[in-house]
Amino acid sequence: MAHTASDTVERIGVVGAGLMGAGIAEVCARAGLDVLVAEAGRDAARAARTRIETSLRRAAGRGKLTADEADAALARLHLTTDLGDFADRDLVVEAVAEREDVKTSVFATLDKVVEREDAVLASNTSSIPVMRLGTATTRADRVIGIHFFNPVPVLPLVELVPSLLTGPATQDRARAFAENRLGKRVVLAADRAGFVVNALLVPYLLAAVRMLESGTASATDIDDGMVQGCAHPLGPLALADLIGLDTVTAIAESLYAEHKEPLYAPPPLLLRMTEAGLLGRKSGRGFYRYGPSGTGVNRGGSSSGVSAVGP
After folding, report:
1. CA pair distance 115, 106, nearest whole angstrom
2. Are the C-beta atoms of 240 and 249 separated by less than 8 Å?
3. Which pTM value belongs to this model?
C-alpha cells in the first residue's frame, strides 16, 4: 500500500526529556506512536520515565484517559542514552537546552545516525533560528521547527517554523504529524527569533520585570492587575516563573541579538536572578517562593504554597 505524508510518521524520537521533552514524548505515546527518548545518562533516563509515568497516572486520575490507555502509552515509550538508536526514526524532535551550540551539536549527530532519507528533523526551539540548526546538517531541507507549549499535554498550540531551506514535503509531513496524529492547532511562523508567540509574549514579560525592578508595583499587584483587570489566566511574573527565568532570558537574548530593539533586552534583575539560580517553579524560587509541589499559582502570589518575594 502506498504511504501518504500523513501516515508515514510512526516512529518518533525525542532528544531530551526535561519539562518540554517529557511532555512531547507523552503526547506522542498517547497518540499511539512508537516513542524513543534519549537522555544523557541512565539516571536521567530513569527520571524521565518516572516523570512521564507520573503525568500519565495523573491524567488517568483526572479522567483524561483510562488506566489501560495510560498503561498502553507507557508501553510505547522507550528510553536510550545513545542517539545511534535513532537510526530508524521517521521524525525526531530535539528538546534540549535553549543553547545554539548544544542544539547544533545534536543536529549534527542526528544527521549522521538517522538513516531514513526523508526523516523529519525538528526542533522545539522557542527562539533560535531554524536555519542555523538546519545548516548544521547535510539535509537542511528536512529540518523544521515544531514548537510546542508548556504543559504540552494540555496546551493545544504548535508553531510550525520552516526555514528558507525547508522543503515543502517536510512542512507537509510536520503539519500532518502535529494536526492529524497529535490533534494540535498549528500556526505557521516565519523563521525569525521568537516566531509568533514569544515575539509578542516576551516583551510583555520583560515589561513586568522592569516594572517590578523600578518599584512601580509589587509582584503580586502586577500579576493581580493583569489577572483581575485583563482576564489573563496567569500574571506575567508568575508566568515567567512557570516558563523558567533562564528560558525567558535565553529567548530575550535571542530576540535582542536579532532585532537590537531595547524592549527585547533582558533587564538586569532578570539576569541577576538567573545567575543566582532563582529560575522559578523548577528551582522553588523566582519572583515567588513555591511549596514542595511547585503548583497553585493562578493570580499573582495569593495561592496556597506560594508567596511573593521582592527583587
Report:
1. 15
2. no
3. 0.86
Catalytic residue annotation: 126, 147, 159, 198
Grid cell of 170 as nine digits: 517536510
**Residue 228 amino acid letter:** Q
128-174 pLDDT tens trace: 899 999 999 999 999 999 999 989 999 999 999 999 999 999 999 99
The CB-side HSE value for 98 (13 A sphere, CA atoms) comes to: 24
**Helix H or strand E segment including 11:** strand 11-15
* Residues in CB range of 311: below 8 A, 6 or more apart: 212, 213, 269
Which three-class secondary structure state does DSSP give residue 289?
strand
Q: What interhelical angle do 197-213 and 268-275 show, nearest 10? A: 90
Sequence length of the chain is 311
Q: Nearest CA to 27 among 38, 14, 39?
A: 14
- Name the residue type at position 42: R
Domains identified in the chain and CATH numbers:
11-188 (3.40.50.720), 197-300 (1.10.1040.10)
Task: State which amino acid sits at residue 131.
Answer: M
> DSSP per residue over 171-201, as a string?
HHHHHHIIIIIT-PEEEE--SSTTTTHHHHH
